[in-house]
Design brief:
By secondary structure, the chain is of the alpha+beta class. The chain has 1 helix and 4 strands. The strands form 2 sheets. A two-stranded antiparallel ribbon has the order 1-4. Strands 2-3 form a two-stranded antiparallel ribbon. It is elongated, with a radius of gyration of 23 Å. It binds iron/sulfur cluster. Iron/sulfur cluster binds next to loops.
């Protein structure tokens, strides 16, 4: 089978490199921020601040209307000492 290799004669290589560098910088910043947040935000806390852990934790607050407990952790402290495993 013959590979279909075509060159785009209209490609501006320098512009493409510049665009790729911008995208790389954006993803690098996103990755850095995610790493910083992961140092304090518990991985079991979902986007609605509900706890998805299958074990007991001192930060869980159960209400009657929801199956998942509310996470009362502050995201500013090390959450791992609250775990009861
Ligand atoms: S209640 Fe505990 S285990 Fe659950 S999300 Fe909060 S800190 Fe994490």
């Amino acid at each position: 089978m013959r590979k279909n290799k075509t060159r785009n004669q209209n490609l501006d290589v320098e512009k493409a490199k510049s665009s790729l560098n911008k995208i790389y910088q954006i993803f690098q910043d996103i990755s850095f921020n995610a790493d910083e947040i992961n140092k304090s935000r518990c991985p079991y806390k979902n986007a609605k601040s509900r706890c998805t852990a299958k074990f007991d934790c001192k930060n869980q607050y159960f209400t009657n209307d929801e199956e998942l407990a509310v996470c009362t952790g502050s995201d500013k402290l090390d959450y791992r000492s609250a775990w009861e495993i």
